[in-house]
């Protein structure tokens, strides 16, 4: 019951954050159009950092334990998620004249596609072949969403620049999600929010500096809007998002984030009377559905079963494996995964393989448990997949298979 409550609270926090982001694009950011985008980003993060500073003191002991690699990932989150992502999103909205707000928001749903691709490039993760189909379908949906008349395109128009900035924002926030989830493994969500805003202020100081002379001319309404953003869609929403992301899988968080484009479209229609064309509605459905299914491909799969007797083939390749009933692999894309193994209440890291066995020419489901050498035949184990590493592959010799296993182990465990 406690686990279910944790998931519910985490999902609710992400949904509330997404709703606040919708209000930002529809009601708040349009009031800042008189201020340069870079100065807007600098000011909203400066004000947000002020209210998040207490977390630096509350969790000051955690600051001392952050490694160099963690500092680099946190800086990446600030650079792309805070500075670049917010600047690109603001520029995209300004270019639309706040007429096609729904289009800008919908294009943000490319964010998980970029996040998964970045994981493949930087973290060396792989994904099932269906991902390519869903990614292609998302591109079609994004194209239809962007243009009310898809047969007439002006590549030099403000619309095209809006598309470019929207996709750059999606990429920036997608990369931020990848490294943000990594950072949350070891630090508090409040501390991460404070560090993200603090680094963003430092990064934006130079590009915003040229506009400092205009600060005295900024009207009171603009300062009031910035203050509202800080306590709604800015610092508060980011805190809620990281709070929720800490409690739920990234795949579930992505589904909860759908509250952002859907509510933004509704708000845009009710209050601004902006209506999507029939073609754009079809594109929106294609985009949301394809991204949802693409994201679900990476969600954690849990397999529980009894270890079956084998032929000791693992000894031949230098990696003993525990064999499981292949029927347990229902809905699991074939390939190699890094995983966690629950054995008698103790957790181990491992590699789960589902696909053709080069030694038997038959499909198999087997797991190699790292740092474990005991006899577990007949025992029940629970396996939770983590990362999709590669497609299944048949090898012509035991030597080639052994070489690949060494590479798989290095890729999975020597991060």
Question: Can you walk me through this structure?
Answer:
The chain is 60% helix and 11% strand. The chain has 415 residues and is α+β, with helices and mostly antiparallel strands. The protein has 2 domains: 2-296, no CATH class; 302-413, Beta Barrel (Elongation Factor Tu (Ef-tu), domain 3). A 6-stranded antiparallel beta sheet has the order 1-6-3-4-5-2, covered by helices on one side. Helix 2 (37-52) packs antiparallel against helix 10, helix 6 packs antiparallel against helix 14 and helix 8 (130-146) packs antiparallel against helix 15 (278-296). It starts with a helix and ends with a helix. 44% of the residues are buried. The model has no long low-confidence stretch (mean pLDDT 80).
Quick summary of this structure?
The protein has 415 residues and is an alpha+beta fold.
Helices and strands, in order, run as HHHHHHHHHHHHHHHEHEEEEEH
- How many helices? The count is 17
Proportion of helical residues: 55-70%
What's the number of domains? 2
Into which percentage range does the β-strand content fall?
A: 5-15%
- Kindly report the oligomeric state of this protein: single chain
Q: State the secondary-structure class.
A: alpha+beta
Quantity of strands, as a count: 6
Distance between the termini: 34 Å
Instruction: Please give the order of strands in the largest beta sheet.
Output: 1-6-3-4-5-2
- The poorly predicted ranges are none
Q: Tell me the radius of gyration.
A: 24 Å
Shape: globular
Sheet of most strands:
6 strands, antiparallel
Mean pLDDT: 80
